[in-house]
């Protein structure tokens, strides 16, 4: 299928891929601006590194690409992970009100996200099943026309989430996908060989994939 040009960059290990992710984020945010940042575990080291960089932090706004419908401050919240990894640098963190449940949370988040687009940079992750943000393969949220969509019955727990949509995530100057570890190898192979996985549906011209060797395996050019 068509989709963005996928530009694969392979680094020796997860640490090096995360260092590059932090550098690309810092470049994009050098004059301030807004970034949508993946949750989950993969990007955590990149956020720790980013936090140490000299940036105009008060001019930077961050928003998670998706949020899990669990109470505020729950360990599974993506906004909690972001805040813990980045520490208090004076940036603005926009929290998506997923604690209100998928539908009400997405409705209220729509008004929060509307003033944030277009983004300077979006950093996405890739799940083992090929999901990105909380956009799962075959899920109706892929067809959403707004900026934020409710998600029920996500195959990865927790099942209730809200997510920035393809439309929101595609409004960015720079789109990055960070993929590390052997557990992501099959999803990355499928993405690169043309399977209809959610990142392929982004309407950005180029999606830069920052992968480590374990994830990229035999896919290196
Ligand atoms: O559930 C989620 O999964 C993806 C991938 O997470 P990871 O732990 O495998 O890196 C993540 O990008 C997304 O933000 C998150 O909510």
Number of helices in the DSSP assignment: 7
* Largest sheet geometry: 7 strands, parallel
The CATH top-level class label? Alpha Beta
Q: How big is the Rg?
A: 16 Å
Number of domains: 1
Tell me the total number of β-strands. 10
* Overall CATH architecture: 3-Layer(aba) Sandwich
SSE order: EHEHEEHEHEEEHEHEH
Q: Output the structural class.
A: alpha/beta
CATH topology: Rossmann fold
| Oligomeric state of the chains present here | single chain
Small molecules bound: the ligand O=C1O[C@H](COP(=O)(O)O)[C@@H](O)[C@H](O)[C@H]1O
- Binned, the helix content reads 25-40%
Low-confidence stretches: none
Please describe what this structure looks like.
The structure is a single chain. With 221 residues, this protein is α/β, with parallel strands linked by helices. It has a single domain (5-220), classed as Rossmann fold, CATH 3.40.50. 27% of the residues lie in helices and 24% in strands. It has 7 helices and 10 strands. It has helices at residues 14-28, 44-51, 78-86, 102-113, 166-169, 185-192, 213-216; strands at residues 5-11, 33-37, 60-64, 66-68, 92-93, 119-125, 148-151, 161-164, 172-179, 206-212. The strands form 2 sheets. A 7-stranded parallel beta sheet has the order 1-10-9-6-2-3-5. It has a 3-stranded antiparallel beta sheet with strand order 4-8-7. α6 links the parallel β9 and β10. α1 crosses α2 (44-51) and α2 packs parallel to α3 (78-86). The longest helix has 15 residues, at 14-28. It is globular, with a radius of gyration of 16 Å. The mean pLDDT is 97. Ligand LXAUTJHC binds next to loops. Belongs to the glucosamine/galactosamine-6-phosphate isomerase family. 6-phosphogluconolactonase subfamily. It is an enzyme of class 3 (hydrolase). It comes from Rhodothermus marinus (strain ATCC 43812 / DSM 4252 / R-10) (Rhodothermus obamensis). Its EC number is 3.1.1.31. GO terms for molecular function: 6-phosphogluconolactonase activity.
């Amino acid at each position: 299928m068509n989709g963005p040009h996928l530009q694969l960059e392979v680094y020796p290990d997860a640490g090096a891929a995360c260092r590059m992710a932090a550098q690309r984020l810092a470049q994009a945010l050098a004059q301030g601006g807004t970034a949508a940042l993946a949750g989950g575990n993969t990007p955590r080291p990149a956020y720790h590194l980013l936090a140490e960089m000299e940036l105009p932090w008060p001019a930077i706004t961050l928003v998670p690409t998706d949020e899990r419908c669990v109470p505020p401050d729950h360990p599974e919240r993506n906004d909690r992970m972001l805040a813990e990894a980045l520490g208090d640098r004076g940036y603005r963190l926009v929290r998506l009100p997923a604690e209100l449940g998928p539908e009400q949370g997405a409705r209220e988040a729509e008004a929060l996200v509307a003033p944030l687009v277009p983004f300077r940079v979006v950093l996405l992750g890739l799940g083992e099943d090929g999901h990105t943000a909380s956009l799962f393969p075959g899920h109706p949220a892929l067809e959403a026309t707004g900026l934020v969509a409710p998600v029920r019955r996500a195959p990865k727990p927790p099942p209730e989430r809200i997510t920035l949509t393809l439309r929101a995530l595609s409004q960015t100057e720079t789109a990055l996908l960070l993929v590390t570890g052997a557990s992501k190898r099959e999803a990355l192979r499928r993405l690169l060989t043309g399977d209809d996985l959610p990142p392929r549906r982004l309407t950005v011209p180029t999606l830069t994939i920052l992968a480590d060797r374990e994830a990229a395996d035999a896919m290196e050019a």
